[in-house]
Amino acid sequence: MSPVNQDIRFNRLQVINTALSSEKDLNKLLELIVNGAQELTHADGATLYILDNKNEYLHFKIVANTTLKIWMGASHSQITWPPLPMKIGKYPNLASVSTAAATIGEVIDVADVYKCNRFDFTGTKEFDSRTGYKSQSMIVVPLKDHLDNVIGVLQLLNALDDNNKVIAFNKEDKKLIEAMASQAAVAINNTQLVADLKNFLYSFISSISNAIDVKSAFQTGHVRRVTKIACMIAKKISNIKTGPFKTYKFNQQQLEEIRIAGQLHDIGKIITPDHILCKATKLETILDGAETINLRFEILKRDREIAALKKALGKNIIVDVSDIEENQNFVMNANTGSEFMSKEDQAKIDQIAKIPCTINNKTQPLLAQWECENLKIAKGTLNNQERQIIQDHVVHSIEMLEELPFPKDLCHVPEIAGSHHEKLDGSGYPKGKSKKDLSLAARIMAVADIFEALTAKDRPYKQPMSLNQALKIMGLMIKDNHIDGNIFECFINEGVMKQYCQEELSPEQIKDYQW
């Protein structure tokens, strides 16, 4: 080979190695390795194997043959051939040329497979028989990483001269392919490491997301459903060609950010006390306070009956406790928090609270101060302190997420996840951001979170809300400049809401909506 040709091939090797070091997609990387190896050595065929993590099998990743116009594996058609075992019983598999190269860690050069008795080429000969091909020269190169560990094998077949005649691989071929194999192995290792770390991150995020849902028996599926709505809206916006979103296009990385942010938007609830997060009634704490109050009402009835019996001993008497039972029912109904509580009803709680009740010869008000205040909660089941604790979950979420060293392509996750309770007019929490401070992804997350909360079927403190009711409330929120009306219109008009409702809501919730 002339010095000029050597220089050209060496320069081409540098170009190929540079490409290998910059490629992050594993399938594309494997294809680059095979194409580059064939180009450098003028090989007609190539097979790339990767060794599994347990060093038990060589797995086919790419099989290519220019003459037969075969290309299998990677981003092309799947290879169904069984992997090659590294051992036969207790002993290394030195019969196969590929497993032998992986075992001994050295390049194996075969001038003619039909004249070589060192290895078993039954498979190669059967391939020739099926296809009419003639395998001849072969060079098999172990792929070694920076720690000198074999991670795979590159097998090249039939070197061709300038006239496309099959010749043996020469020393120059061997040097070039060894130099390239070293860079290829490092590139594969790095790409697989990144992929493994990414899979670990996503699996960990999924576990955290599931833990948040499981933590609250009354909100199981909330995180999943919010993530689902947000991703559906974002994908739809990316396909809209007219209107306010015609210039917005979320790429795959940005869609991934939204998905991860959805899974982590309530991560702060991990440290929210269970008895507050799962508070089903106004009097529920670690124990159910309603049971104690019911016992006091029973004491009131008992005391009235005893007093009446003492007054009319021996006579037929009927004790009227209907007023006590009426008050008891009123208190128990107020405890559910299912309806807005009027000022009049709150005043009645104050009156009931003052009813004297004697326990252990000590007269006390029927309701303790905290019980009275909780029963007077106007909306829902949380008092102001508990509501603040619940709202603080967003603060905790932001703090926890900002502590995590997200990779560059997920760096917006904390902002997207931590802004789902912000409002466009700046009246939301925890940071009081306004529209100009909120990304489109964050505004999408807010719409998703609110719609899921309104229509959820598993809240203990309210009946499942109908779709018409939810749309009316969100319409008012748009009017008050709390949520993004354009996003909500996309949600309704582009088929996202219909698909979600049919999959997640009960028939009763959507029966009156005119699609």
Structural summary, described in words:
The chain has 515 residues and is of the alpha+beta class. It folds into three domains: 192 residues, Beta-Lactamase; 186 residues, Hypothetical protein af1432; 93 residues, no CATH class. It is 52% helix and 11% strand. Strands 1, 2, 3, 4, 7, 8, 9 and 10 form an eight-stranded antiparallel beta sheet that branches. Strand 8 and strand 9 form a beta hairpin. Helix 2 runs antiparallel to helix 5, helix 6 packs across helix 15 and helix 9 runs antiparallel to helix 10. The longest helix is centred in the middle third of the chain and has 45 residues. The chain starts with a helix and ends in a 5-residue tail after the last helix. The relative contact order is 0.08.
Task: Please sum up the structure shown.
With 515 residues, the protein is an alpha+beta fold. It is 52% helix and 11% strand.
Layout of secondary structure:
Layout: H1 3-22, H2 26-41, E1 43-51, E2 57-65, E3 70-73, E4 84-85, E5 87-88, E6 91-92, H3 97-104, E7 108-110, H4 122-131, E8 138-144, E9 150-160, E10 166-167, H5 171-215, H6 222-239, H7 252-264, H8 274-277, H9 289-311, H10 322-336, H11 343-353, E11 356-359, E12 362-365, H12 369-375, H13 384-403, H14 413-417, H15 440-455, H16 467-479, H17 485-493, H18 496-504, H19 507-510
Antiparallel strand pairs: 1-2, 1-9, 2-3, 2-4, 5-6, 7-8, 8-9, 9-10, 11-12
